[in-house]
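Dear Dr. H.,

I hope your travels went smoothly. While you were away I took the liberty of generating a structure for the chain from your last submission, since the lab meeting agenda had it listed for discussion. I wanted you to have the full record in hand beforehand rather than looking at slides cold. The sequence, exactly as received, is reproduced here:
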Amino acid sequence: MKNALIDPNASPITYISGWTKTDPTEPIFTPIEYSYRVCEVQNQIFEVALPLFWTDCEDDVVADLWYYDFKLKKCIKKPDNIEPPPELILNVTETIS
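The corresponding predicted structure, in token form, is as follows:
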């Protein structure tokens, strides 16, 4: 079992849940309730300044790809970001060319 360093000041954690249909398109960021940032994962803990704190976590937890749910008191993997629709990628590519 590893240890996750949690930053309660960096909440809430967000992910891209969709894209606007406006021009230019913009990502839609959705906050995750009860989330704190996992900023580091280590085998051994070291002293940190408050309000940072350590918590036990599974070995597969990765900083910034997981978050700490302070209501459930555990680390959870962030949802995957939604990629822009292909037609939006095509428009961006055409504009750059």
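Two observations you may find useful: The first helix runs from residue 86 to 96. The CA atoms of residues 66 and 77 lie 4 Å apart.

With kind regards,
E. W.
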